[in-house]
Amino acid sequence: MVPAAGRGERLGPGAPKALRELGGVPLLVHAVRALARSRAVSLVVVVAPPDGVERVRALLDQHGLDGSDSAWVTGNAGITVVAGGATRQESVRLGLAAIPVEVDVVLVHDAARPLVPVDVVDAVARAVLDGAEAVVPAVPLADTVKQVLPAAVAGGPEPVVGTPDRSTLRAVQTPQGFRREALQRVHDKALSDGVEATDDAGLIERYDGRVVVVPGHEEAFKVTRPLDLVLAEAVLARRRARDEF
Ligand code: CTP
Ligand code: MG
């Protein structure tokens, strides 16, 4: 599943983030291709902005991802587009509802991570198939992290209260992989409890499930701010120069 219903406010004015282009191709199309390239993936559910379902369908068609004659790009993965919601969590819940009941492993991959290598997708799927309930790819942190008391006024000095041992911290990426029934169960609970988490693995943890980390990749970074798009263009140019596509 590819949640792509966000507005991309931190990226600045313009089209919804998933529809912004990287190397002339929408981020969403990169993300769908990255997932579908994995032999473990048989269906991609794209969660589109609520008012953008038709536009997303048209874009996918235009890039040969209409889910029928696109085997050369997608390795036979089918594609479904559904409308998302106001939060990422709601979008994932709506996407889950569109996945056929017989599917029992679900990967959730941000449209905003267009350049995830297929090896990471495969590793996450493999870990779930090997028995994990929830799997997240992650990388070590480059920066030291401080815990602070957030300032009342933005930009004010913030007292430091601690420095977690960096060697025990990981920055998590997507795709995150789940046993479908576990993901469904925690989303149902979160909905009835009014709980919001920033990622799906966070919901599993919140309800006492077990999450494991597998190695992520630096190219699976999230496009969040304008500088991230500059980096993504550079990574894509490097791949094209090396003929990796
Ligand atoms: N997402 C979604 N539905 C929402 C909000 C986010 O499907 N209501 C998706 C985004 O499209 C993105 C992923 O969740 O692929 C990760 O979210 P984020 O990077 O925060 O994207 P946006 O919410 O679009 O960006 P911003 O927070 O800057 O507005
Ligand atoms: Mg967001």
Q: What is Rg?
A: 18 Å
**Superfamily at the CATH H level?**
Spore Coat Polysaccharide Biosynthesis Protein SpsA, Chain A
Mean pLDDT: 94
The number of domains is: 1
Portion of residues in helices? 25-40%
The CATH class label is Alpha Beta
List the helices and strands and how they pair.
Layout: E1 2-3, E2 21-22, E3 25-26, H1 27-36, E4 43-48, H2 53-62, H3 71-74, E5 78-83, H4 88-97, E6 105-108, H5 118-129, E7 134-140, E8 147-148, E9 160-162, E10 170-172, E11 176-179, H6 180-193, H7 200-206, E12 211-215, H8 226-241
Parallel strand pairs: 1-4, 4-5, 7-12
Antiparallel strand pairs: 2-3, 6-11, 7-10, 7-11, 8-9
Bound molecules: cytidine-5'-triphosphate (CTP) and magnesium ion (MG).
